[in-house]
Amino acid sequence: MADDREQQLVSAALRGDKSAFGDLVDLLKRPVFTLCMSHVRDEADAMDLVQDTFFKAWTHREGFKDGTNFRAWVYRIAANACIDRLRRRKTRRASELDDTMSTEQLDEGDLPAVGTFGRASPFTEQARSQLGVRLHAALDTLPDSMRQCVLLCDVHGYSYQEIADELKIPKGTVMSRLFYARRRLQEQLQDYREEARHG
Length: 199
Prior knowledge:
It contains 10 helices and no strands. Helix content is about 65%, strand content about 0%. It has 2 domains: about 90 residues, Orthogonal Bundle (Rna Polymerase Sigma Factor, Chain: A); about 90 residues, Winged helix-like DNA-binding domain superfamily/Winged helix DNA-binding domain (Arc Repressor Mutant, subunit A), CATH 1.10.10.10. The chain is an all-alpha fold. The chain is globular and about 50 Å long.
């Protein structure tokens, strides 16, 4: 029923119903804020990005196809807004990682997803399990460049090429960052993997 109600609101909003769009904002503002926080790690920035996201969703609503996944569309707007915000930040950590790995050195099949811990993907459980808290803490230890790639790929479902296009970096750099980021995350969550294997 909730999904039906949301779809009705989406259809009404696409016809220009501001009240329906306001109801959609109420439904989605918390998950969009969480998404933005996971990217920018600053509450004020995240709140600004939430506002920007819904402003863009409203003013560009003609670009959404009724009947498709409205949430995914909004989340992608938010993710892109986060990328733009981070790109404008001038200060970058000097030594984040070695980006020299090329696509010739590393096949896509060599990149284990964050979710390959012997059970369901951690991102599908993060809202309702202790793993979610642990995973967020582990993500926070990653350099911005690595965290962005993991979030875009494993949370938002971007392809390697889409990430490369969005971040304006070579595909090989995306793959390298994902490889090292996932390895670091798996090392930090090693004890959870052991519990899952034996529990």
